[in-house]
Model the fold of this input.
Amino acid sequence: MLEVHHIFKTYEGKPLLKDILFKVERGETLCLLGASGSGKSTLLRIIAGLEDTESGFVSFDGQNLMSTPAHLRDFGLVFQDYALFPHLNLSENVAFGLRMRRLPQNEIAERVVNSLEMVNLSGFEKRQVTDLSGGEQQRVALARALATRPRLLMFDEPLGALDRSLREDLLDELRSILHQTNIPAIYVTHDQEEAFAIADRVLILHGGGIVREGTPAEVWANPGSAFVAEFLGLGNVISGNVVEKMKEGRWKMESEYGVFIVNCEHEHKKGAKVHLLVRPLSVDEGLNIIWGIVTDAIFQQDRFKVTLDNGLYVYLPNAQKVGERIEVRVRVECLA
Done:
């Protein structure tokens, strides 16, 4: 099990990582999700031993690793730019780390074959990496990391250079490989769809700290703050005021978009300011109604994203005419 203990790090005199604390269990895929500059790649490099920290430490199975150099930590890394050797063919690239460890030639050959088979590149052993597509090169990088049988895998925006269809295919394969090998993994990305597709657990970084942690389903259902809701694009985040407490954990809250009845477990004072999440639903459910004049309707997969003149948006199964006035039921949640 990997443990990160109270990591602090500054950049240009300003705090970048503040008291970062988490664990990665055996067989678990943890995703570090955050905007550019949130410190997620720096945190990954600290764990890998490629960068120092000002305080705190990293341990694996109870052993402090801060005095252990990167090449002795037995961690595998996969980067966005693949970091392959252009003068070597596929099998030579995959075998590189094994040769550095001076393993017997027959064991190297066996591991290369097994690793390439795992990433669906059997029969490509003699190909030059420069003849491969971006997706195939990323598979080679993954095979090279798997060949060393690391006790932890780390991915830094590994699919960022690939187009959408390739990303989706590789995500499916990568998730399957990680479950098959049971190797714990840390996956860094700024893409929420990628994070939610690959992760068993998500950590969202912002302002130097972890602002939300949980399974993808937990984070989606309960973002916990206005920042997380907006970052994940969960819906319309608006300001409101508490009017009164009602029965059964319901509150009456008002905003510039109307008065809403909100199920909320928080305790509020009358007149207190709150952030509300107005979820754009595609069916008629929820206690509340918003209305407005349609200014835009964009088809997205199996539904239309309809934007109203008040700035709010909803998802509807059918297109609405621009200029049409509509009323839609929505779910409103309190973010406190």
Q: What stands out?
A: The longest helix spans residues 164-181. Helices lie at 40-48, 90-100, 105-118, 134-147, 164-181, 192-198, 216-221, 226-232. The two ends are 35 Å apart (CA to CA). The chain has two domains: 2-226, 235-334.
